Amino acid sequence: MLIPHPSMLLASQNTNMEGQQLNLEGPSPNQSNIPSEFVWPDNEKPCLEPPKLKIPPIDMKGFLSGDPETVSAICAEVNEACRKHGFFLVVNHGVDKKLIDQAHKLIDTFFCMELPEKQKLQRKLGEHCGYANSFIGRFSSKLPWKETLSFHYSPDNKTVEDYFLNSMGEEFRHFGSLFQEYCEVMSNLSLEIMELLGMSLGVGRECFRDFFEKNESVMRLNYYPPCQKPELALGTGPHCDPTSLTVLHQDQVEGLQVFVDGRWCSVAPKEDAFVVNIGDTFMALSNGIFKSCLHRAVVNNKIVRKSLAFFLCPNKDKVVTPPKDLITMENPKKYPDFTWPSLLEFTQLHYRSDPETLDAFAKWLLEKNK
């Protein structure tokens, strides 16, 4: 089976010259070099044998049991992890393994289609969803070695089903139905995790759950083809998610890395677990107490890597402001109030999100509102 490479597409030379195209010829299976646009600087190149991150998985069934001692212990673990690096795993989450397996199979089905078929869902200029290769057109260098398909989800309607049906036709109805179900399950799991985060911060179960009840979220399918020079490229560059919460399921191919204690650590795939990381929006909601997680993905030269990422986002009209209990003399309010679309606008105007994004956004917002 021919594995498509992200570099087979056309890329804009820079983000301000959308009309000028650069043809990046895809590497053949035996090619020793990769296009320079995919080569990362020496100080950002991947470490292919990093230490493993050791972190206890969080038992969601135990948390939802209501047993005071169990809940207290789980909340303490989550609090420690989120203050330090914003990352943890959840197990006993109740998500049907068959649903996860079917979703992974459909990733293969979509990304192994011919390019013209995938381009029926091509991401349009200025939009955040659709099919994309390496975010070509937005960036001109340090391109990530991957393909993605992103689509919107919101409760109480059939956004996902309609997206596939309207864009790809009747034969893709099953794609829409499956991912509609998957997103609904991820939304429910995210709300349970929000209860956990609320308890861990001492503001109660309902505080953040209520805030995200009518979420307007994004689902992304990630596909990382083999790369002949994995020591030069990255599947996804170092970044913090601007969203609130990411719930990720990896396949069994290693590649996710988290920055902890000044070094990159690998997150070993765990079939029965979801990876959860805090994003910038929830960092603001916690008044900076919980940290947005800095992470990246590496690639390999042997096998495709796939992942399913659900990005929980608040309703566009919700004002992101921390609960009063999290604003104290010792920890005064760190960021101005904002809505999710304004942070998204900021991240689209600038390069990649990093640990300084929220501070830069706060300054930008104050200048914009003068």
Describe this structure in words.
- The protein is an alpha+beta fold.
- The chain has a single domain, classed as Jelly Rolls, CATH 2.60.120.330.
- Helix content is 31%, strand content 19%.
- The protein has helices at 60-64, 68-84, 97-111, 115-118, 159-168, 173-201, 206-211, 280-285, 340-349, 357-368; strands at 10-12, 21-23, 58-59, 87-91, 130-133, 147-153, 217-224, 236-239, 245-250, 256-260, 263-266, 274-278, 295-297, 305-312, 319-320, 338-339.
- The strands form four sheets. The chain has an eight-stranded mixed beta sheet with strand order 3-4-12-9-14-7-6-5. A four-stranded antiparallel beta sheet has the order 8-13-10-11, with no helix packed on it.
- Its cofactor is L-ascorbate.
- Belongs to the iron/ascorbate-dependent oxidoreductase family. GA20OX subfamily.
- It catalyses: gibberellin A12 + 2 2-oxoglutarate + 3 O2 + H(+) = gibberellin A9 + 2 succinate + 3 CO2 + 2 H2O.
What is this structure, in a nutshell?
Pfam families: 2OG-FeII_Oxy (PF03171), DIOX_N (PF14226). The chain is of the alpha+beta class and 370 residues long.
- Extended strand count: 16
The CATH class is Mainly Beta
Distance between the termini: 56 Å
CATH architectural type: Sandwich
How many discrete structural domains?
1
Number of helices: 10
- Helical residue percent? 25-40%
* Class from secondary-structure proportions: alpha+beta
Order of helices and strands: EEEHHEHHEEHHHEEEEEEHEEEEHH
In the sheet with the most strands, the strands line up as 3-4-12-9-14-7-6-5
Cα gyration radius (Å) = 20 Å
- What share of the residues does DSSP label as strand, in percent? 15-25%
Contiguous low-pLDDT stretches (5 residues minimum) are 1-31
Please state the average pLDDT score.
87
